[in-house]
Design brief:
Elements (H helix, E strand, L loop, with lengths): L2 E5 L2 H6 L1 H8 L11 H8 L12 E11 L9 H14 L5 E5 L4 E4 L1 H4 E2 L2 H11 L5 E6 L1 E2 L4 E4 L3 E5 L9 H9 L30 E5 L11 E8 L39 E2 L5 E2 L20 H14 L20 E3 L4 E4 L1 E7 L7 E7 L9 E5 L3 E6 L5 E9 L12 E6 L14 E4 L2 E2 L6 E4 L4 E9 L4 E9 L2 E4 L8 E9 L2 E9 L1
Parallel strand pairs: 2-3, 2-4, 2-6, 5-7, 6-9, 15-21, 23-29
Antiparallel strand pairs: 1-11, 8-9, 10-11, 12-13, 14-16, 16-19, 17-18, 17-20, 20-21, 22-24, 24-27, 25-26, 25-28, 28-29
Length: 512
Amino acid sequence: MTKKIIQCLLILLLFSANCIIAQQLHPCGTVTGRSKWLKQYQAHPDRFSKGSDNTIYVPMTIHILGTNTGSGYFRLPNFLDAFCRLNTDFEGTNLHFYINGEINYINNTAWYQHDDILTGVEMMFENNIENTLNVYFVDSPAGNCGYNLPYAGIANAKACSDPDDHTWAHEVGHALSIPHPFLGWEGGVAHDGSINHNFNEPAPREVYYDYTLFKDQLYLDTLIIDTALVELVDGSNCFEAADGFCDTKPDYVAQRWQCNSAGRSRVTQTDPDGQQFTSDGSLIMGYSLDQCSSRFTQEQIAAMRANLLDQKASWLNDDPPLGTVNTDPIVVNSPFNEEITAAENIYFEWDAVENATHYILQVSRLSSFAFSEVDVVVEGNSFEVESLRADRKYYWRIRPYNHYSACTTYSEISEFQTSSSVTSTEQITENLDIEIYPNLIQKGESIQIHANSTSQDFTLTIYSLDGRRWQEEKLDLHHGTSNLPFRFAKSGIYLLEMKNEKGIQIEKIIVQ
């Protein structure tokens, strides 16, 4: 493969339409050629370890950008959906990505909406964490859906990181040495797009592409135009043409394209020998639309694993991963559905979910949760909200996750009503020398009541927090301990009122 190195001034690199604007037309700004390492690997793949069938855990440092005022962040639930999609896309590779440390939120408008790759370089050089794959979520990564810089990290656009998008997986493939299957066609036939090509005519034997910003190191004053051989349909040059993988068949289409019902391109192309073909839409590293792409090939997988073990061993460690978060239905306890509660110091509590370390708690006036009054990350299974507006209906839900496992869903939506005056759950008087325990029980369990003085006749009434009376009993409680004559069949918070001529006592019972 020949290489042409053309010296030019940095100012031309920054502002030349040929150098930068052409990149903005690509859904992926990464013009990843075959690196020196990849060429060595593809020449002798048997000499490189792939880690057998063991799962390789890859740490990622996540940076979420916003404006100078802190607006515009990629919302955490949306990020978790994208993170789930990333690991789903890599299921067949035995590579699993996890979040290293906490997410880094950065307020910088110039980085949040950067127009050129070099601004992204600055962003990464100032914030990268060593020995991890650094990923930045921004509003506009130089006009692309995403790009990868081999010496710095990945930038993804929020708008291209929906649950069904494969942009993140595509850029990670680049980060682990994998080029586009159409390598060399990013500029058509010429690196600057100045020569158009008619796909009905035989393709040239080689094409040219601008490789400057995507080498293994940053070049500021050099324009590097590289040459790629065009892959033949008969596979005779597959080991050296395009991406160098023989199980990614010829593809010359470097714009986004829709596949047909067979998963192939609608554009028919012609190789240099005159053989016609269509492109495979299933390849994540290609440019087919997201509903078409779904996989990495076996040769791509082997190369990614070898690249991690050979070039990025410092990223890897033997720390045991956290388990998968349990996806069984989540039990929410307080406030229970349709409860009326005070508008201050509202206590939210739910059953802990196996392997979850974090929970997103959302409280909203809207059942769609299009806007949330409370949207917090909780480490634990309870949280107290200082205040909400009184006399309003609210909806709440939670979503569990950990730094390895994000393919989770929200709990069922539970609603509650705030009130400006709710019956106090504190003991009203001490005239009745009575103890009730435990005050936290499971459904179906009974409660014991203990009288510390002589026998007492009293009326026991059970209320829900909205004031509804559930049960009333006339009881003759002798000195000592007795079981209450009923069991709670429904989860929730109840008020037990004990009343006789000596006074009244109210206690709170939580039934899980």
